[in-house]
UniProtKB/TrEMBL annotation, chain A:
Coiled coil: none annotated. GO terms for cellular component: plasma membrane. Part of the tripartite ATP-independent periplasmic (TRAP) transport system. The complex comprises the extracytoplasmic solute receptor protein and the two transmembrane proteins. It holds the Pfam family DctQ. Its main location: membrane. GO terms for biological process: C4-dicarboxylate transport. This is TRAP transporter small permease protein. GO terms for molecular function: transmembrane transporter activity. It is a multi-pass membrane protein. It comes from the Bacteria.
Automatic annotation (TrEMBL), chain C:
This is TRAP transporter large permease protein. The lineage of its organism: Bacteria, Pseudomonadati, Pseudomonadota, Betaproteobacteria, Burkholderiales. It comes from Sphaerotilus natans subsp. natans DSM 6575. InterPro entries: DctM, TRAP_DctM. Belongs to the TRAP transporter large permease family. Residues 18-426 form the TRAP C4-dicarboxylate transport system permease DctM subunit domain. It is a multi-pass membrane protein.
Length: 174, 314, 435
């Protein structure tokens, strides 16, 4: 029941090119979101009007930005995790290896469940359209599907290769 | 036996104490009574199952069984639903009942089937009315320059721009503070919503415009519905019809109470004269024409004909 | 489903606790741990469908109000890249640098000012520590205390508006973000005042060199240079209060303002440098928002299982006395805060705790302030204190040293927290006036 491993995006360790593309996409989403929301403030305050699409467009881009960013963050170990306990196993290689494998299996499980659910919602969403811009609602679960596919593929590769766990990363912002 | 034990997850947007919540509770009781307790409705309000659009997708995908919500949010799924967004379509609740429960309402509902939804009955959200903090709106020209929040929906945006207001799209969640700080001057909603959202605290003038009638609709996941026995389907349909009558009566009583309370709380209330309503309707010819094109001219003409006949019969 | 004679709701509660403790405990990605916990709860509740997981994952970030998060991150990045933070610190130094232990007061003053422009404790702490720690080391300040002070100053950022944790809290619990923002102003200033007293007390008996006094003309000149930076809080709070924009829009205006100042007024940034800033802001946001997404999956199931209702039943009599309930919840949050960061604490526990507080008649905005304040203090409590890590990283000093130095300030904050529990009016009274 493998949910659509998309060929180009699910490469296990994104090459610098894939990562660069993801970064550009993230930056572009953020830039357009900012402009859309800012323009609406200017229009409302200055001219008593507004663009109906501004909110819908910025929300859609936000969803894409988050899931592209989250997919790119996974192979680099940038996601938030509470590693203090597992770090205590560092002196006991076998236990650490087992814990690492367990984490990856669980990540894989979560990715498969999410990917499967997102796949069904993408299929359902082509027939429905957003209120203002009229884009197909499938565009909302689609980035989640791609993100689940990337994370799942990465976790699988890490599991098979026995890549050591990255213990150094915690939250980036609060 | 034709009736199996079933758990029905029924989502809605308002809270338990609202007219919507009361009617959902009534529906749940009817279903349980008629099925001898085998079919149980788990009613979940306050949008805890997500906003309307999210629940609709869950219904289509078969992850949730039932919901009630605004017809306006179904326009993206079935374009014919936009018919109900037409400004000044109905002159009275009576007209709305006849058209919605008659062949035209059935025809629009039936279009949901291709998209994975089954529409059971229409409930009433209510006629929408205008409030603002600038001046009483007695004639068309009074709308000039009023910064008016409208739903993020092209029909409403176009309509109020055609009427001369500065229509500003804004999510409902930000509306109260926008009215409070005068980021916008006015808004439009049914009496019940105006009262429950405490808009009277930040708005002085209320004009009874009845400019658009907003229905709600009960929908069922088609994936799930098709697996039900005819007896089970009948139980749901009967309960839905009973709930419709209950809901409309309850909502209309509440709207009357809400209007009185808004007045008691100091809102200055005036009614829009039929002559001014007619002038507004004339201004909206272009908007109506585009709705006609969107929902299909056949449906549009049929609706207009039915309304003309209805009004002549009086 | 019958299991150990428990109702499905009680089973869901067990799944929730086990999911949180085990999945997070073994170090799984928190967002995905929340997804799996949500999946388990859906299973025992009879709500299982993979589509619900995906839908809520997306629904958790499909929110206009949450857009404030990337915009405030962007504004913060632009402030640091465009020399705004630097000018604020220079100004603080010109005015109070010559007092005994002056660099400490500089740090506190700059922390409060920067808090009124940025919403991130980590970004503020990094900016403060990068500039001030080396200076404090040169002048012979005790490093552990200095590091502790900078960490403590950094967590004022999420209390004084703008604040990303308030945005996330507001979205998670349906509380007015504007009201939360305004509620943080006075407590944030009290935190600053508390730090001043604590710093004085810590410094007693230590001989520190004073900085040369800056002549008045020079002080005014340096203040003038910080003019454009100082306009930022006025624009954010003034604009929001007067209704020109919503909190989300305030965030984007702040970012645009910081960009214009950086590019055309300070001229410390060129347009091509905008790309890395955008990439950075987008990446950090994505990581936090992925957590929000996962939390929505779990909180959907928390609502279905009515966990707050179940817990309210257990707490019984506590609901009758709001102050006692508040005190108990604050202690629980302090314990949670030792191990969990602010954002996950909000996402996981706010939807469970707020309904209980509301049932006891506690004002939701006051509760939000207390919740975020407590969670922010968790950022400087060991063993997991992200802001402590930043200071240790920037200052190249062992974490244990910063932990030792932060203690007096931690005690100060604990007293402030207790003060607010006993006298909620300190928080609520100014709020009435500010609204
Ligand atoms: Na702040
Ligand atoms: Na901590």
């Amino acid at each position: 029941m493998s949910p659509t491993p998309t060929p180009n995006l699910s490469s296990p360790a994104p090459t610098p090119l894939a990562l660069r593309l993801a970064q550009w996409a993230v930056a572009a989403c953020l830039a357009v979101m900012s402009l859309a929301v800012f323009l609406n403030v200017v229009l409302r305050y200055g001219f008593g009007s507004g663009i109906a699409a501004s909110e819908e467009l910025s929300r859609l881009l936000f969803v894409w930005m988050v899931f592209i960013g989250a997919a790119a963050a996974y192979p680099r170990g940038e996601h938030m995790a509470f590693t203090s306990l597992v770090a205590m196993l560092e002196g006991r290689p076998l236990a650490l290896r087992l814990a690492t494998a367990l984490i990856r299996l669980l990540v894989l499980l979560a990715a498969v469940l999410l990917g499967w659910g997102a796949w069904q919602q993408v299929a359902v969403g082509w027939g429905s359209h957003s209120a203002v811009m009229g884009y197909p609602l499938a565009l909302l679960p689609l980035p989640a599907l791609l993100c689940a596919a990337v994370i799942g593929a990465c976790a699988l590769v890490e599991l098979l290769r026995g890549t050591p766990l990255d213990l150094g990363h915690a939250a980036d912002i609060e | 036996q034709d009736i199996k034990p079933r758990l029905i997850r029924f989502g809605y947007g308002l809270n338990e104490q609202s007219n919507q919540g009361r009617a959902v509770k009534f529906f749940a009781e009817q279903v349980e009574k008629a099925s001898g307790g085998k079919m149980r409705v788990r009613a979940i309000g306050a949008a805890a199952l997500g906003p309307d659009t999210q629940m609709q997708q869950a219904l289509i995908g078969g992850a949730q069984e039932m919901m009630v919500g605004s017809t306006a949010t179904l326009v993206g799924i079935t374009k014919e639903m936009a018919l109900w967004d037409t400004p000044f379509l109905f002159n009275s609740a009576k007209e709305a009942d006849v058209i919605l429960d008659g062949p035209i309402g059935e025809k629009v509902k039936a279009r949901l089937q291709d998209k994975g939804l089954v529409g059971l009955v229409y409930w009433e959200n209510g006629f929408r009315n205008l409030t603002n903090s600038k001046r009483p709106v007695t004639k068309l020209e009074d709308l000039d320059g009023v910064k008016l929040r409208v739903m993020q929906n092209n029909v409403f945006l176009d309509s109020f721009r055609s009427l001369g207001a500065n229509a500003v799209p804004m999510p409902f969640s930000e509306l109260f503070s926008a009215l409070e700080t005068k980021a916008v001057d006015g808004q439009e909603n049914p009496f019940n919503t105006i009262l429950s959202s405490k808009f009277h605290e930040v708005q002085k003038y209320l004009t009874v415009t009845n400019h658009v009638y907003s229905p709600w609709i009960i929908t069922v996941s088609k994936k799930w519905w098709d697996g039900l026995s005819p007896a089970e389907q009948k139980i749901l349909m009967d309960a839905a019809r009973a709930s419709r009558d209950f809901e409309r009566k309850d909502t209309r009583e509440e709207a009357g109470r809400a209007l009185a309370e808004l007045k008691a709380k100091g809102m200055q209330i005036n009614e829009l004269s039929p002559a001014e309503a007619a002038r507004m309707r004339d201004r909206l010819t272009r908007v109506n024409a585009s709705i006609g094109v969107n929902v299909g001219m056949d449906l549009w003409n049929e609706t207009q004909a039915a309304l003309t006949k209805l009004r002549a019969a009086k | 489903m019958e299991f150990l004679g428990l109702t499905p709701e009680a089973q869901a509660f067990v799944v929730f606790c086990v999911g949180m403790l085990v999945l997070m405990g073994i170090g799984m990605n928190m967002g995905l741990a929340l997804v799996l916990t949500g999946a388990g709860m859906a299973w025992v509740l009879g709500f299982w469908d993979a589509q619900l997981l995906a839908q809520n994952l997306v629904g958790g970030v499909d929110s206009f109000a949450l857009l404030a998060v990337p915009f405030f991150v962007l504004a913060g990045e632009l402030m640091n890249a465009g020399g705004i933070s630097r000018r604020i610190i220079d100004m603080a130094q010109a005015w109070v640098g010559h007092v005994r232990g002056g660099l400490g007061y500089v740090a506190i003053g700059a922390a409060v000012l920067m808090a009124s422009m940025s919403g991130s404790a980590l970004a503020d702490t990094a900016a403060l520590a990068t500039i001030l720690l080396p200076m404090m080391r040169d002048r012979g300040y005790p490093m552990h205390t200095s590091g502790g002070l900078l960490a403590s100053g950094g967590i004022i950022a999420p209390i004084i508006p703008p604040s990303m944790p308030f945005v996330i809290y507001g979205v998670t619990t349906n509380t007015s973000i504007s009201a939360l923002f305004l509620s943080g102003i006075v407590p944030g200033l009290i935190m600053g005042a508390g730090l001043i007293l604590a710093w004085r007390w810590v410094l007693r008996g230590i001989d520190l060199p004073a900085e040369p006094k800056v002549p008045l003309a020079e002080r005014l000149k340096i203040t003038g240079r910080a003019f454009w930076a100082l306009m930022m809080p006025l624009i954010i709070i003034g604009g929001m209060k007067s209704g020109v924009f919503t909190p989300t829009e305030a965030a984007v205006v702040a970012a645009m303002y910081a960009l214009v100042v950086a590019l055309f007024i300070h001229r410390e940034m060129r347009l091509p440098e905008l790309l890395p800033v955008l990439v950075n802001a987008g990446r950090t946001t994505a990581v936090v928002m992925f957590l929000c997404a996962g939390a929505q999956v779990a909180s959907y199931m928390i609502t279905l299982a009515d966990l707050p209702g179940v817990l309210t039943g257990w707490l019984g009599g506590l609901v009758e006395s709001p102050r006692l309930l508040m005190a108990v919840m604050m202690i629980v949050l302090v314990l949670i805060g030792t191990a969990l960061d602010l954002t996950p604490t909000i996402l996981i526990f706010a939807p469970v705790m707020l309904p209980i507080a509301v049932k006891a008649g506690i004002d939701p905005v006051y509760f939000g302030l207390m919740f975020v304040l407590n969670g922010a203090i968790g950022l400087i409590t060991p063993p997991v204190g992200t802001v402590l890590n930043v200071v240790a990283g920037v200052g190249r000093m062992p974490l244990a040293q910063v932990v030792r130095g932060v203690n007096p300030f931690l005690l100060t904050y604990a007293l402030i927290l207790a003060l607010f529990v006993v006298f909620p009016q300190i928080v609520t009274a100014p709020l009435v006036w500010l609204r």
